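User: Sequence recovery, please. Input:
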């Protein structure tokens, strides 16, 4: 069986964007807003060197909320992949949940099994790609990433700062990550040091 590092996308691979018009911090809504976070290609290369598949698992309700079209979503998705490949870092697979319980687009209005904190995306990827979850990692910047990873039986890393508001909520929800790192490159060295060959 294979092992994997599951990555949340926005805030882990690419920078979150402050959308002035809507007054929200969210995923990029256009290709122009897209910026890969420093150190991410290096981190991905380290994961591959120590035998992990890299799989993006991400809630992307932007189409459901009418922030972007499917075409724009695809363009952003492709741009991230191309940008990483140009820096020698390839993504092995991507799994997205496009649903939202309050979607404006009727076809995407659903209480699904794939929206994190549910583990559906991770479980699906594991089934399709023969991944052993207990030796795999979920890395994300949100409470729902840590919950999804724990629900799937993975080890977890929060990208963020200790003593954050999120950490207090994690205590309340009993969803402490195994480690907290400032960025993906730091997470790569944690995973390298805790790697079971
Ligand atoms: Zn879903």
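Assistant: Recovered sequence (197 residues):
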């Amino acid at each position: 069986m294979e092992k994997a590092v599951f990555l949340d996308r926005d805030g882990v691979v690419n920078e979150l964007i402050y959308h002035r018009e809507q007054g929200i911090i969210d995923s990029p809504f256009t290709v122009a807003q897209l910026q890969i976070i420093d150190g991410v290609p290096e981190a991905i290369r380290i994961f591959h060197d120590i035998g992990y598949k890299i799989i993006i698992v991400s809630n992307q309700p932007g189409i459901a909320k009418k922030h972007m079209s499917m075409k724009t979503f695809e363009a952003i998705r492709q741009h991230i992949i191309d940008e990483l490949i140009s820096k020698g870092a390839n993504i092995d697979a991507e799994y997205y949940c496009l649903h939202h319980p309050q979607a404006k687009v009727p076809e995407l209005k659903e209480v699904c099994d794939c929206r994190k904190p549910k583990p559906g995306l991770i479980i699906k990827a594991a089934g399709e790609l023969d991944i052993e979850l207990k030796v795999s990692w979920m890395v994300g910047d949100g409470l729902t990433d840590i919950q999804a990873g724990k629900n799937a039986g993975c080890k977890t890393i929060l990208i963020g700062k200790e003593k954050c508001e999120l950490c207090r909520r994690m205590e309340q929800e009993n969803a402490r990550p195994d480690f907290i790192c400032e960025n993906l490159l730091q997470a790569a060295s944690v995973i390298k040091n805790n790697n079971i060959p």
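The chain has a mean pLDDT of 93.
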